[in-house]
Amino acid sequence: MRIIAGLFKGHKLVSFDEDHIRPTTDRVKESVFNILSPMIEGARVLDLFSGTGNLGFEAFSRGAMSVDMVEKSPRSIAIIKKNMAHLKVTAGIEIHREDAIDYVRGYTGKAFDLVLIDPPFPLKICETILKDISGSKVADSNTRIVIEHSRKESLPKQILSLTAIDTRSYGDKLVAFYEKRDL
């Protein structure tokens, strides 16, 4: 895994040997961030199910103002911290050791500009997290929501106040882009 573009372009993220992590491939990450590029600079980003921090670090490298990473696994948090040290990041990234669904349900702050979601595929919780985001303050009508999911877990075009505006296929996974609309 490496950072594709921006401040940390070409830097490799620390290697790991953890069965519970399935990071987004560089090919998929590059494609997704090429689509998102106009909205990254200065954005407040929420990275749910952060794992290694791969997506959040890419957003930060490309000019995001801040990235909040939500991850409940202590082993994953240790990897995120190693990546922060490796990249010499001392500010702009905040780690929340919490279940992503609990974080979304309890969030009371200002809406993020971009929400990146890469949940563990076996849990089949994509629709659940999107429903929770629909009713949460993490997103408003200006927020772009991006979720990576397995082909085995299809997502509807409409999930409460969220509407899919694009879906891309990458082998056995799909990446869906949602917007929040007033009902």
Task: Describe the protein in words.
The protein has one domain (26-180): 3-Layer(aba) Sandwich (Rossmann fold), CATH 3.40.50. Helices cover 27% and strands 25% of the residues. The N and C termini lie far apart (40 Å). Helix 4 (100-106) packs parallel to helix 5 (126-134). The mean pLDDT is 91. By secondary structure, the protein is an alpha/beta fold. Strand 1, helix 2 and strand 2 form a beta-alpha-beta unit.
Based on helices, strands and strand pairing, what is the structural class? alpha/beta
Oligomer: single chain
Strand order, sheet with most strands? 3-2-1-4-5-8-7-6
Largest sheet: 8 strands, mixed
Q: What CATH architecture do you see?
A: 3-Layer(aba) Sandwich
Q: Determine the strand fraction and express it as a percent band.
A: 25-35%
Q: In CATH terms, what is the fold-level topology?
A: Rossmann fold
What's the average pLDDT?
Answer: 91
Give the SSE order as H and E letters.
HEHEHEHEHEEEE
- Morphology: globular
Whole-number count of domains: 1
Number of helices: 5
Distance between the termini: 40 Å
Task: Describe the secondary-structure layout.
Elements: H1 26-36, E1 44-48, H2 54-61, E2 66-71, H3 74-87, E3 93-97, H4 100-106, E4 114-117, H5 126-134, E5 144-150, E6 158-159, E7 162-170, E8 173-180
Parallel strand pairs: 1-2, 1-4, 2-3, 4-5
Antiparallel strand pairs: 5-8, 6-7, 7-8
Helix pairs in contact: 4-5
Provide a compact summary of the structure:
The chain has a single domain, classed as 3-Layer(aba) Sandwich (Rossmann fold). Helix content is 27%, strand content 25%.
